[in-house]
Structures are given as C-alpha cells and as structure tokens.
Amino acid sequence: MNKQLNLFGAELELDEPKNKVVNVASVPQRSPFRYPGGKTWLIPTVRKWLKQDKKPIPLMIEPFAGGGIVSLTAAFENLAEKVIMTELDPEISAVWETIFSDDNQWLADKILHFNLSIETAKAALEIDIKQVRDIGFNTILKNRICHGGIITKGAGFLKNGENGKGIASRWYAKTLYDRITAIQQIIKKVEYKSYDAFQILEDYRDCSDCYFFIDPPYTKAGKRLYTFYDLDHAKLFEYVAKVKGRFMLTYDDTEEIRGLADKFGLRYTTIPMKTTHHLEKNEIIISDNLEW
C-alpha cells in the first residue's frame, strides 16, 4: 500500500490525517478578498514549508494568486525576498493590478467612502466600465456583497448576513481600507502579473532556489466558485513534476488527484480543514519534500 508522510515526518496510511484543524482567527487577515477556497487556514503550515531550508528564499511564485494570502504572508513576514503573483481571471486580476500600482490609495479611498445600499451596489455593477481600477473596485464590491464571496455571473446578493445586515454584513470598509493601504509597505517586494500559470511554471522551471505555492481551482468546487475553472489538471501535474525548485501543490482529497500524484511520482500527505459551513474535510498537500 502506498504510504505518505505527515507533516512531522512519520509514515501514515493514506486515510489517517494527524494534524489539527487550524483556527483561522489566529492568522493575520491580509487579503481584501472573501475568497472561496482561500488558504488562510493553511498559513501555519506554509510558514514551516517556507522555512525548511533555514535560509532566505530569493523568490516565491504563486501561479494561481486568487485571494493572495500566501504571497502576502511571505512578503509581510519576510519569508521571501521577492514574490511573483500571477492570475488569469480578469476580475481578480484587476484587483491585484490596482493594489500593486499607484491606484492603491484610490481604491482604498473609494471603498472607504462608498455609501453601500442595494441601490448603489446595483448602480455600480450595471455601469459598463473599462478602466482596470474601476473593474477592481466592482470585483471587491461583488466579492463582499454576494453569497459566499462568489464573483461569477449569477451570484446573488446577501439577503440576511450577519445580524440581519444584508449586503452590508461583509462590507467592512475601514478594514478593507487598512488592508489595502498596508500593502503599500510591500509593493516593491511583490511583482504582480496577469499571466498564465503554466507559462510562469515554464519560465521558472529551472530555478532551483524558487519556491512555488500552487493552489489551482479545485476539481469539485471549481465550476461553482471560479470564472476560470476549466483546468487541465494532468498537464499541471506534468509541469510541476519538472520544476527544479521547492513546490507545494494543494488540492481536494480525491481519487483523481491521488492518481495523478502517483502517476507523476509526487509525494503527498493529507491535512484537515474546516469549510465555511463548518464541515471538516481533508485536502492533499503534494510536495517535493514533506520532511519539514
């Protein structure tokens, strides 16, 4: 039977995750997104992974930036000297392009002073906008007022939310302002690109000092949560297997994903997490090294 290592190096059977669920309230919240499939809960594990070589990391790359919590953590906590984030989804990309630009303060101010109501939200989202910063604002707006933070077409507004506040229940304008303006401190450390994940993996394939944190749209939830969910997972495994640097690839724990890991000779372990509906489930961590 194929065995795996837990995060402390001991051999486990495949169905025996030994790690406790992380309380996300214990992790600094740095992302402006409420992100389905976000990795805040994984941050304590990511920190250990990034420190495994006991020396500064020249470059960490996150090909599927999404909510960006891993990249932000690596930059803020000086776990990497430089970070590259890439994302193809045009709406998510617009947010990061705006944040990592001279329009950072504009976006923060726009959020802080926006008078949120159902009427103002509908009016903002119905305007045909072209500027990247305006698309970025509308994406944050949808992410904060739609069910589950889902920004795909058809996602409805929150009706009840926290304490019956409806669409305002997740619109923490001052908190968003603070998170976005704080990112100004690390702008020089982070390079953001609207770029293809496969291409960035190819570009840096031979970088032996690079760390790759790879969190693709998930096989089970992707269609509901993401605009760009149609991903060739076998191709991704093939690309990851060729990189010379360190990597961590995260996925739903499914037979398909285990099969792909086995096919390409990649080691994996499971780790428990709690969903937004407080259901515990396992995810798979696939890595070049699990002994950290």
TrEMBL record:
This is DNA adenine methylase. Keywords: Methyltransferase, S-adenosyl-L-methionine, Transferase. Pfam families: MethyltransfD12 (PF02086). One of its GO terms (biological process) is mismatch repair. GO terms for molecular function: S-adenosyl-L-methionine binding; sequence-specific DNA binding; site-specific DNA-methyltransferase (adenine-specific) activity.
